[in-house]
Amino acid sequence: xxxxxxxxxxPAREVDAQEIGSAEIQALIDDLIDTKRATHGAGIAAxxxxxxxxxxxxxxxxxxxxxxxxxxxxxxxxxxxxxxxxGAETVEINEGCLSVPDLRGYLTRHLAVRxxxxxxxxxxxxxxxxxxxxxxxxxxxxxxxxTLFVDRADPRTFATWEQFDRHQRDQFVERVTRLVDEVGx
Length: 185
Fold this sequence. Notes:
The chain contains 5 helices and 7 strands; from the N terminus they run αβββββββαααα. It is 31% helix and 30% strand.
């Protein structure tokens, strides 16, 4: 789904614990993984494929051609994720989105977050994510809340991928490389 589709603006409903193992939810998870990998995204939420349920996946493969500067993140399937900031420190990140094609912009994200969720088997997880990885998790949970990155970004910073590559990428990659070196992800 792309910006303008109403499903992207709906807060997604929680998935009942008994639903997690259903064929429908498991097929949705597989579809999210396949779609994310096919598009070289860093993550994708269920409402991005038209399903307003609280399911998202995050994964950054080594050498991701879309985000070569992001540190690797193993496949993480999140059902009913909840995020809370860890500390008050924030960082400015340049983001794009599969649902907002060919547009990027700068926004502020928490530098570290605690993520609580159920995995595809219904097992509970609680993890702290930091740096660019924390930003990716915040981006996906925003989707599940009906929020797009354009809602948080300074519109004066919007750029197409081509213009980002031409005028902003080198400076951004230099800055986030230092961030990754400092905080680990």
